[in-house]
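Hey, I was hoping to borrow your eyes for a little while. I've been staring at a protein lately and its backbone has me curious. You're getting the sequence in one-letter code plus the fold written as tokens. Would you mind checking whether the tokens look sensible for this chain? Here's the protein in full, and shout if anything looks odd to you:
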Amino acid sequence: MQDIKIGLLGLGTIGTGVAQTLFNNKKVLEQRLGFSLILKKIADIDITTDRGIDIPRDMLTTDAASVIEDPEIDIIVELIGGIKPAKTFITDALRAGKHVVTANKALLASHGKELFDEAKVNERDLYFEAAVGGGIPIIKTLREALISNNYTFIYGILNGTCNYILTEMTENGSTFENALDKAKSLGYAEADPTLDIDGTDSAHKLGIIVSLAYGIPSSMDKIYVEGISGIDSLDIAFAKDLGYKIKLLALAIDRGNQIEARVHPTLVPFNYLLSKVDGAFNAFYVRGDIVDSTLYYGRGAGMMPTASAVVGDIADIGRNIQSGIAGRIPYLGYGEGLSSKKQIIPIDNITSNYYLRINAIDRPGVLAKIAGALGKRNISIVSVIQKGRQQKGFVPVVLLTHEAKESNIRTAIQEIASFEEIDRNPIVIRVENKDLKDNRDVP
């Protein structure tokens, strides 16, 4: 059998992990594959900084094109991230007859179809396990292991930075700002964490998941996205009183002819397994009509977990090369022309339970006025908490609602915010609890 030669673009955190894995676990890979995976060249704009591993000097270059054009290289691994020049590098590699492995979720979420079409035209594989879930093999699971299932729903905690921040706020009473600072100091958050905390990173991953599970082309503009920067310690405390934790949840739910695809802070009951996923860990809760409920848990980011996924893809492609095949598995799990015609439901049309926190003047009749505004929109109340006096006579009133339509909630909240007895805009957080659903068969 021929050895498989690899070209690596990007020697940052993940690239270093991939190089280290290929060097240190060379023997076990050979034993399992029956051939060698040989890292031949590495391109990066910085080839002088010490990465903590011994890389031969002649393996390093600042010229990505020389790696892509090397006739001996079989697989290009793109780990530079971003849209440009990563898209150009992947396209050039496919046209040069190379197979490609990438962890670039933003690129796949926005330009995946173009790249998959390019791979198909050139009869090459394009694998991307590391783009979603780090070391958790969720792509392979959805595309291959659970292929017989219609996916009722997929819930995910997809961003370790946000999950760490919310865990700190829940377990240690930290403010959002202090929890974010700690996440940065531990390396869980970037210097600029915007794409994490505003939900964009989770939305990129959800877009890929929706494509795999339901055959819908990734449409970032149709996925509702809401981040965690508006979460207050007060809401964390009230959620605990009600029996919930707040998590940044990504949800994909099959509603028959349509799909819900949304990312937002969510109240999750204490007795749900997802509520126990803390710190920087990720998880996917998947229900299929054949397999029923399954849970996948692990490190969703970081050098070595992500490197594990990248090398797994390299090994899969290596086996394909040895067998003389490419494109054996459709890139997004669906045969050409067989993907779903389902559409993503606009956020205004979903139904959910809701947590509402309203700062109101502490006097008789105010709660009745709030309930009246909700009642006019067919929104009924499950429970009410009112405690803790604030300044100027305002107190937080917390309500948990039965299922309601999002558009009705928004209209009601707009009216409530206009009341003279109300201080500041009310806080609205969606709730996922099957015990509150009218139809117990849905999540």
